[in-house]
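User: Before I run my own analysis I want an independent prediction to cross-check against. Here's the chain; please return only the structure tokens and, at the end, one sentence I can use as a sanity check.
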Amino acid sequence: MSFSEKEKHFHHSGLSNSSLNWSRHLLMQRSQVTSLFGADALWRKGYTGAKVKMAIFDTGIRADHPHFRNIKERTNWTNEDTLNDNLGHGTFVAGVIAGEDAECLGFAPDTEIYAFRVFTDAQVSYTSWFLDAFNYAIAINMDVLNLSIGGPDYLDLPFVEKVWEITANNIIMVSAIGNDGPLYGTLNNPADQSDVIGVGGIDYSDHIASFSSRGMSTWEIPHG
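Assistant: Structure tokens:
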């Protein structure tokens, strides 16, 4: 299965003057992304991710990174002999989820992080690596599985059927929908599957980013 370049959550080029002003306002106010999405209200109610087992399928994470309080396990499913994140993408994604640095808080800082390294330093991966890692995630009873990647191969049946098996085991799967907008019918797999939570991108004006993929899903398109 082929995968597109890792997803980016915010678009920084081609912003209007009003968007740039809003960006500067956010920086001046030292506002957190978590505040923009209302995470503070959840934290006040005690929802901080405690006792939630989060599988992050990406480029790995450094063992002693100071921004994480609860890295439970790191596993490598590639043909490279390292557990570290030499690209930074997996670390960034983990930071959005569970970072505790005061400059950039994560949404669920008490989450138990399980880092699955499924991409090489050259951003290469294979379906077989994912299938092995998915099986392990099922075996150790993950609660949530995050994929900040995606690809066009919605007919890769071993991968698609394994996603069904994951969700059938009561694991919540979250996946990026892709950076192939603004045309319709550009959702990536597995975010296009009905039992997966697909996540897109927004700009500083709280509008759907132009690059963000959007439906219909490939399952709804003729011959999909």
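Sanity check: The CA atoms of residues 62 and 84 lie 5 Å apart.
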